[in-house]
Amino acid sequence: MRYPIVFKCAQADIENKKTNLKMSIKSFGAKIFARIVVRKMKKWMDNPVETQQKVLLSLLKSAGDTQFGQDHHFSEINTHADFVKQVPIRDYEQLRSYVDQVVAGKEDVLWPGKPLYFAKTSGTTSGAKYIPLTKESMPTHIKAARNAILCYINETGNADFVDGKMIFLQGSPEMTEQNGIGLGRLSGIVAHYVPSYLQKNRMPSLATNCIEDWETKVDAIVEETKGEDMTVISGIPSWVQMYFERLQTATDKKVGDLFQHFNLFIYGGVNYEPYRAKFEALIGRKVDSIELFPASEGFFAFQDSQKEKGLLLQLDSGMFYEFVKADEFFSETPKRLTIGEVEIGINYVLLISSSAGLWCYNIGDTVMFTSVKPYRLVVSGRIKHFISAFGEHVIGKEVEQAMKEAMGVFDFSISEFTVAPQLAVTDGLPYHQWLVEFENPPRDLQVVADFIDSSMQTQNSYYFDLIKGKVLQPLKLKSLERGAFQKYMKSQGKLGGQNKVPRLSNDRKIADKLDVK
Question: Span 396-514: which CATH code?
């Protein structure tokens, strides 16, 4: 009677060995592939200026017969100086006359033929925006995301996570059609391009991913994943935090105890630093992270090293980059710089021309370079998201740095924060109001406010002058009730997905809705 049991145990042992062998082969193969890819990347990293020149000429040649190409005399452009003369800086609204024709179904407008998709986004001034994704541009999104992970594997030697489950908190992959062109959210469109070898590992299920209501979706994801061996988790930090909190409520366990092999967090969209302390508390340990810089307009950069600061700018991904100093951007003729002309530590507005048919397009982000060998940068803010009510021009990077320093000194944690000017002061001078949702509040709010204000004065000389000149009084911190930001986002129909609260506003449209007491 014992023989069948022994046979079953032996058979189970054989199956386990087969599974382990498959796992080791998969991770071993990932390491080899990572070395090959990194070696190829080094070729363009070592020749940045030449690479970008080739990209520009290739784009111009490809789009020469389009309506935009003929309107702007692409056939006569041979240098960047020619390009500057023929193609002005545009944002979405200024490019809209062309985009509207593409949306209407017309071919050969901005790029040969029709786009494969439109990534639909919500614009703050333009209403809904339709960003084209072409057969040439779409693969660059996938390749950059893949290469970010491969660079991590190559540097750290850690590839075991490829055998576990991976979750990507993203928008619904369901799409509609607009004149024969697929229409959806970028994260949902990209979901259709997950490589087949990752499909078995990928979570959540398609049905769950298609749930539109974010809170319902997160609860469903919790139910699907709480019993799985999750090794990689990806998404915007604020929404991943919501997922972690609900996991902990459902299981009464820290995320790290629930997912014992979870060691890699991949994120983009916002700075992770304000959330890091809360994440580590929820997880119960530190985990490696990879930062990405994707947008509907293109996948621009990713963190290629755990040791170096900044994100590697993708110079060979069908995008030609130009840079304008942020403090000159609103002048009549701002100087457009190419990659070989940028300097470390200067705030630039990022402009792109791409194989999606966007030409000298202002994506709205500002960046600062941390290295030029190779070209690595950090996202410093949004050109429209700043405070300059009195000429101080405070940017996102500065407020996030000040908050990070304060959390390190005073040992508190936050869920979210935003900053806006307060001009309607009945007694005293105007000031910058910091609206903060604390996770673990500091003992003395005023001491923290004084510290943050000192950091802001150190970082921003204009702010320093306004404080010392008694044009502004020092900033004030306002503690908000728990869930205030989620409640606000829900009221705006922007809960979850790729939506995020602006870190800075030059008015009080957001602040007044949060500061209701």
Answer: 3.30.300
